[in-house]
Amino acid sequence: YRLPDSLPAEKIKYINVEGDFDVTNLLFPGKDLPCITRLPEKFKVGNEISISGVFHDEPMNNVVVRLQEGLKSSVGGTTPLNIGLQVELSSGQQQQAEVRLDTRSWGRWSAYPVRRPFRHLRPGQAFALRITNRLDHYEVNVEGSAQHLSIAKELDSEQLTHITLVGDASLETLDFPRQLALPYLNEIPNTL
User: Fold this and answer.
1) C-alpha span between 13 and 117 (Å, rounded)
2) Closest Cα to residue 68, out of 135, 134, 163?
3) Do 28 and 173 touch, CB atoms closer than 8 A?
4) Residues 167-176: pLDDT tens digits?
5) Whether pTM exceeds 0.85
6) Is 80 exceeded by the pLDDT of residue 121?
7) 140 and 128 in contact (C-beta within 8 Å)?
8) Which DSSP string do the residues of 6-39 spell out, in sequence order?
9) DSSP string of 87-108?
10) Residue 134 class from Cβ within 10 Å (0-12 exposed, 13-18 middle, 19+ buried)?
11) Residue 137 half-sphere exposure, CB side, CA atoms within 13 Å?
12) Is 85:151 a contact under the CB 8 Å cutoff?
């Protein structure tokens, strides 16, 4: 859909799309963070989220991606009570470039956050990551790494309603592909 020329894009703050269909891909070429949007209602085991963006040339803040319950976000200065997954990307501007994973359940951060140095994250450079919802953990793949990071779930993923992205970067794409990965869970019909 292309906006009419008589409607300046900088005046648009929200978009609401309703209907009986699934939105699988949102394009935000060059839109500065923050970005808050609903997760697909069926963010089940095996589903993925792909995110791509570009760090600012001189970032002062890390990029934080949160899968959370409810709308409260760090954009307004408060931390949500329940965060199913928080992925923090540091570009190396203020400290060593690294990826950090954490969870927050009922106001308490995880006792076992995951941290890994990652030299491919640089100011002014593009980044891409994929989050996969596994049976008992989340798997995070960052482009440029053969390894994936994982962290145990502390909340049922069906409780999570929103994805929040904040930090010193521009968002390019936010993609919710259909069911892609195993395990696939479904009841076997009696007629087999």
Assistant:
1) 36
2) 163
3) yes
4) 899 988 888 8
5) no
6) yes
7) no
8) TS-GGG-------SSS---EEEEEEEESPEEEEP
9) EEEE-SSSS--EEEEEEEETTE
10) middle
11) 12
12) yes
Who wins on pLDDT, 161 or 144?
A: 161
Closest CA to 53 of 156, 153, 126, 103: 126
45, amino acid identity? V
∠ CA 22-19-34, rounded to 5°: 60
3-state SS assignment for residue 192: coil
Q: Is residue 144 within 8 Å of residue 138, measured between CB atoms? A: no
Q: Which two tokens stand for residue 153?
A: 């779930």
Residues near 188 by beta carbon (within 8 Å), at least 6 away in sequence: none
